[in-house]
C-alpha cells in the first residue's frame, strides 16, 4: 500500500484558494508602491543613486550607507538592470517576504510532522496569516524597509534549532547578522542550549564567519576591513535618544532626560541582567530544549531585548511580530500575543510614517510588556509543572 498522502478534492480546492491568496497578496503589496517614506527619500534612494553614479559595484569601495554590504548587493544588482530607485527598493523587500515563506513552511512541517493528515491545511493557515500580517505588509511594500532580509535567516536558524542541527543554525544566524545588527536579539538562545548541555562548540566559528565573508566583495573593489567593521559600531553609537519611536520602557521618561549616557549604560546592563535571570531560572528548572521551549524562549528574547534595551527603533520588534505567528500556530489559545504585538507595531508605524497617531506610548509599552509577561508566564508554568512530575 502506498503510504504517501494522496490529494483529494478538498486539497485541490485548497491549492486553488491558495493561488488566489498569493495573487491577492502580491496585488496588495503592489498597491503600496506609490508610497515614499522619509527613510526612502533620505537614505535608500540616495544610496541607490550613489551606486549608479559610482560605477555600480565599485561604489562598495566606500561606506556610503549605514547598512552592511549584503543588502547593498541587491541594490547593486538592481542598478545594472536600470530599475527605478523606488521600484528596486520595494521589489527587494517584497522578494524577501516570499522567500521567508520557505522557512515558515519548513518550521510548520517540523512542528506538526505528527499531524500529517492536516499538515497541508496548517501550512495554508500559516502562510495566509504571514503574508497578510499587517506589519509584514507595511514594513516591506509600504515602508521599503528590509527587516525581512535578516528575519528570513533567523527563521532558517530557528528551523535548524528545532532539528538540533546547531551548526546549520549558527551559519544562518551568522548570515542574518551579516544583514542586520538586530540579529543579536536572537543570539542568547544559544545560552539556553549551553545550560541544557546541548551546545555545539566545534561549529561556533560559523556564528561570525558569514559576517566577515560578506566583506570580501567590498574589500576586492578597494574598501578596507576597519571601514566595514565600523558600520555596526557607528550604528550602535549614532543615536542619541533613549527610544526612537519604540514602545520601550523609556517612554516612561521625559524626552530630554538628563544623564542620557547613564540611562544607556544602565538600560543595557538591566537588559543583560534580565536575560541572565531567565537563563538562571531555566537552569534551576532544568529546562529541556523541546520545540515548545525553544519557541517560547526565542519569542521572549525577541520581545524582551527591544523593550528594555535603549536606543531602539519601532521596527526592532519586527522579528517578534513574525515569530508570534509560529507561536500562535503552536498555541492557538494564546492568540493575544500576536494581536498585542501587532497593535503596538501598527500604532508605532502609523506615528512614524504618517504622524497622525496620538495614542499614548505609555499604554503601548504596557501592551508590549503584557505580551512579554504572557509568554513568560506560560513558559514558566509549563516547566514548573514538568519539574514536579
Any overview of this molecule?
By secondary structure, the chain is an all-alpha fold. The chain folds into 2 domains: 28-182 and 199-233, no CATH class; 239-389, no CATH class. Helices cover 68% and strands 1% of the residues. The chain contains 18 helices and 2 strands. It has helices at 9-31, 38-53, 69-80, 85-99, 101-111, 119-132, 134-142, 147-162, 166-179, 189-195, 209-213, 216-220, 225-238, 260-284, 291-308, 318-330, 336-354, 361-388; strands at 243-244, 312-313. Strands 1-2 form a two-stranded parallel sheet. α8 packs antiparallel against α9 (166-179). The longest helix has 28 residues, at 361-388. It is globular. The two termini are 41 Å apart. The model has no long low-confidence stretch (mean pLDDT 94).
In short:
The chain is 68% helix and 1% strand.
Strand percent estimate: under 5%
- The count of helical stretches stands at 18
Number of strands: 2
Give average pLDDT, whole number: 94
Taking the sheet with the most strands, its summary is: 2 strands, parallel
Give me the strand/helix succession: HHHHHHHHHHHHHEHHEHHH
Question: Could you say which structural class the secondary elements and strand pairing correspond to?
Answer: mainly alpha
What is the domain tally?
2
Principal-axis shape: globular
Secondary structure: helix percent: 55-70%
| Low-confidence runs | none
Amino acid at each position: 500500500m502506498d503510504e504517501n498522502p494522496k490529494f483529494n478534492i478538498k486539497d485541490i480546492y485548497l491549492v486553488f484558494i491558495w493561488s488566489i491568496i498569493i495573487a491577492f497578496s502580491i496585488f496588495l503589496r503592489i498597491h503600496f508602491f506609490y508610497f515614499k517614506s522619509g527613510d526612502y527619500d533620505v537614505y535608500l534612494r540616495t544610496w541607490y543613486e550613489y551606486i549608479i553614479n559610482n560605477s555600480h559595484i565599485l561604489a562598495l569601495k566606500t561606506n556610503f550607507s549605514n547598512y552592511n554590504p549584503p543588502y547593498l548587493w541587491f541594490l547593486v544588482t538592481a542598478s545594472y538592470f536600470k530599475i527605478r530607485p523606488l521600484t528596486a527598493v520595494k521589489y527587494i523587500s517584497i522578494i524577501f517576504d516570499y522567500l521567508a515563506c520557505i522557512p515558515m513552511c519548513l518550521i510548520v512541517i517540523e512542528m506538526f510532522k505528527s499531524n500529517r493528515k492536516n499538515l497541508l491545511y496548517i501550512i495554508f493557515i500559516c502562510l495566509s496569516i504571514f503574508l497578510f500580517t499587517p506589519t509584514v505588509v507595511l514594513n516591506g511594500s509600504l515602508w521599503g524597509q528590509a527587516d525581512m532580509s535578516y528575519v528570513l535567516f533567523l527563521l532558517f536558524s530557528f528551523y535548524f534549532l528545532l532539528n538540533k542541527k546547531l551548526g546549520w543554525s549558527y551559519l544562518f544566524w551568522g548570515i542574518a547578522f551579516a544583514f542586520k545588527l538586530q540579529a543579536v536579539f536572537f543570539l542568547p538562545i544559544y545560552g539556553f542550549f549551553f545550560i541544557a548541555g546541548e551546545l555545539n562548540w566545534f561549529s561556533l566559528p560559523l556564528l561570525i564567519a558569514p559576517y566577515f565573508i560578506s566583506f570580501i566583495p567590498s574589500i576586492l573593489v578597494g574598501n578596507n576591513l576597519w571601514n566595514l567593521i565600523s558600520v555596526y559600531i557607528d550604528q550602535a553609537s549614532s543615536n542619541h535618544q533613549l527610544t526612537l519611536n519604540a514602545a520601550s520602557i523609556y517612554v516612561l521618561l521625559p524626552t530630554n532626560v538628563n544623564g542620557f549616557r547613564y540611562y544607556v549604560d544602565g538600560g543595557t546592563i538591566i537588559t543583560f541582567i534580565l536575560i541572565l535571570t531567565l537563563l538562571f531560572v531555566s537552569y534551576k528548572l532544568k529546562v529541556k530544549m523541546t520545540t515548545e521551549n525553544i519557541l517560547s524562549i526565542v519569542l521572549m528574547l525577541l520581545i524582551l531585548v527591544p523593550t528594555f534595551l535603549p536606543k531602539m527603533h519601532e521596527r526592532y520588534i519586527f522579528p517578534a511580530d513574525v515569530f508570534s505567528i509560529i507561536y500562535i500556530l503552536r498555541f492557538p489559545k494564546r492568540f493575544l500575543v500576536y494581536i498585542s504585538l501587532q497593535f503596538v507595531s501598527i500604532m508605532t508605524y502609523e506615528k512614524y510614517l504618517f504622524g497622525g497617531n496620538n495614542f499614548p506610548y505609555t499604554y503601548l509599552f504596557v501592551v508590549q510588556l503584557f505580551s512579554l509577561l504572557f509568554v513568560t508566564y506560560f513558559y514558566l508554568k509549563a516547566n514548573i509543572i514538568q519539574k514536579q512530575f
